[in-house]
Design a protein that fits this description.
The chain has strands at about 10-15, 20-25, 35-40, 45-55, 65, 65-70, 75-80, 90-100, 105-115. By secondary structure, the chain is mostly beta strands.
Length: about 120
């Protein structure tokens, strides 16, 4: 079983609410630096639409857009930038919302903590 904040200490993690969805970071999470990643969805998930954002989990920080590009019918490549916050123990969630070609809508989450 992976930790609640898997992205804090691993470059590859399953989604918290969709254990068959995996994210792979190209580098560890650091403030104010672009972080590239790839998301692998199950083979039977054909993505029709998708959207990504960073949101504060323990403090309202608005919705920070995340760049996503479809690299195959069921994979996305993306980039995010985690902004600084004055809260000493900020918890963020990477949220990716997908609409499948069969009409199903799913929201996938990866929480992570940024500590001083």
């Amino acid at each position: 079983m992976q930790s609640e904040y898997c992205l804090n200490n691993k470059l590859e993690c399953v989604a918290r609410d969709q254990p068959n969805v995996v994210i792979m970071l190209q580098q560890s999470i650091k403030l104010e630096q672009p972080i590239s990643f790839e998301i692998q969805f199950p083979e039977d998930w054909n993505l029709a639409e998708f959207d990504g954002r960073l949101v504060g989990a323990n403090m309202y920080m608005g919705r920070i857009p995340v760049t996503l590009i479809q690299s195959s019918s069921n994979n996305l490549s993306g980039e995010m930038i985690v902004v600084a916050c004055t809260h000493a123990n900020m918890v963020w969630k990477l949220e990716v919302e997908v609409l499948l070609d069969n009409g199903q809508r799913k929201v996938i989450h990866w929480p992570f903590a940024m500590n001083d």
